[in-house]
Amino acid sequence: MSTATSSSWGTALVNISPYTFSAIGIAVSIGVSVLGAAWGIYITGSSLIGAAIKAPRITSKNLISVIFCEAVAIYGVIVAIILQTKLESVPSSQIYAAESLRAGYAIFASGLIVGFANLVCGLCVGIIGSSCALSDAQNSSLFVKILVIEIFGSALGLFGVIVGIIMSAQATWPTKV
Amino acid sequence: MAGFSGDETAPFFGFLGAAAALVFSCMGAAYGTAKSGVGVASMGVMRPELVMKSIVPVVMAGVLGIYGLIIAVIISTGINPKAKSYYLFDGYAHLSSGLACGLAGLSAGMAIGIVGDAGVRIRFRNMCHPTSTPWRDLALQFLSLLRRDLP
């Protein structure tokens, strides 16, 4: 099983604690999701406020775009909480066992998936929400139609959450001997 | 650890492959959705009745995210060192398949975005001044592939 240590990648990876990978994964899952949500809200919000100067009727309806962006941050929080409940303490003789390493990698990849999928989802929903506000200001029949496009965009964050949760089921630590 | 066979670091590459599949496909889907959505909204200001017909590029871009989801789930459920030995070979194979799916999805999404954005704006312009006959041109092109003597 230690044939992996014959290569330099293997030696480097095997000597990093799985808890390092897990912690980075959890941090990325919430941090980058919140970055995506914030970016989307700032894109939508600035267009919404600017367009509402001449068309104040759009403000209350177009808050839905802001809520879609916020949902992305909530996905990140949920997955971060789920991932940190997957952490278990193992005796120090088993921290670098193959099964612990695999659990650490699973949590790391799961966090990466959720974080970056939510980042691009937040950006996408923000850009579409901004054009939704601007076109709603021109013609109020367009609001529902552009909202359909926004719903397609927000599905991307859900994909990330689904895969992240499926992958986190692989994070099984060795039982205490 | 009974029955855990294979290389220790191979799951790192396998899980990263699943991550690459989903993340890059979602990037492509997001780009396609956002860029063509902005084009649809801009066109819809002038012609609201054309908006629902022009949603096709958005749907196409959304499908890319689903492709990435499927590949990511297949890869991630295939990493089971207890049931089947998972060597570095398998890890690298999963990494490359995830990168292949993801980067292809990213490029497809960017193409869908750019083409969708340009297409809906041209559609609007054509509705105002109909000058082209797209279906007839396409049919003529296919026929000319079959019959060399057609122009």
Automatic annotation (TrEMBL), chain A:
Keyword terms, alphabetized: Hydrogen ion transport, Ion transport, Membrane, Transmembrane, Transmembrane helix, Transport
Transmembrane segments: 20-42, 63-83, 103-130, 142-167
Keyword Transmembrane among record annotations: yes
Gene Ontology CC: proton-transporting V-type ATPase, V0 domain
A Pfam family per the record: ATP-synt_C
InterPro entries: ATPase_proteolipid_c-like_dom (IPR002379), ATPase_proteolipid_csu (IPR000245), F/V-ATP_Csub_sf (IPR035921)
Gene3D superfamilies, per database record: lithium bound rotor ring of v- atpase
Record bears the keyword Transmembrane helix: yes
Subcellular location: Membrane
Membrane topology of the entry: Multi-pass membrane protein
Span of domain V-ATPase proteolipid subunit C-like: 24-83, 108-167
GO molecular function, one term: proton-transporting ATPase activity, rotational mechanism
Function of the protein: Proton-conducting pore forming subunit of the membrane integral V0 complex of vacuolar ATPase. V-ATPase is responsible for acidifying a variety of intracellular compartments in eukaryotic cells.
Family membership noted in the UniProt record: Belongs to the V-ATPase proteolipid subunit family.
Record's subunit section: V-ATPase is a heteromultimeric enzyme composed of a peripheral catalytic V1 complex attached to an integral membrane V0 proton pore complex.
Name listed for the protein in its UniProt record: V-type proton ATPase subunit c''2
Organism listed in the record: Arachis duranensis
Phylogenetic lineage: Eukaryota, Viridiplantae, Streptophyta, Embryophyta, Tracheophyta
TrEMBL record, chain B:
Gene Ontology molecular function terms on file: proton-transporting ATPase activity, rotational mechanism
Database matches in InterPro entries: ATPase_proteolipid_c-like_dom, ATPase_proteolipid_csu, ATPase_proteolipid_su_C_euk, F/V-ATP_Csub_sf
Alphabetized NCBIfam families for the sequence: V_ATP_synt_C (TIGR01100)
Domain V-ATPase proteolipid subunit C-like: 16-75
Ranges annotated as spanning the membrane: 12-34, 55-79, 91-115
Oligomeric form and interacting partners: V-ATPase is a heteromultimeric enzyme composed of a peripheral catalytic V1 complex attached to an integral membrane V0 proton pore complex.
Gene3D superfamilies: lithium bound rotor ring of v- atpase
Record keywords, A-Z: Hydrogen ion transport, Ion transport, Membrane, Transmembrane, Transmembrane helix, Transport, Vacuole
Identification of the protein by name: V-type proton ATPase proteolipid subunit
Cellular location(s): Vacuole membrane
Chief localisation class: membrane
Native source organism of the sequence: Arachis duranensis (Wild peanut)
Membrane topology: Multi-pass membrane protein
Gene: LOC107459124
Family: Belongs to the V-ATPase proteolipid subunit family.
Function: Proton-conducting pore forming subunit of the membrane integral V0 complex of vacuolar ATPase. V-ATPase is responsible for acidifying a variety of intracellular compartments in eukaryotic cells.
GO CC terms in record: proton-transporting V-type ATPase, V0 domain; vacuolar membrane
Tree of life domain: Eukaryota
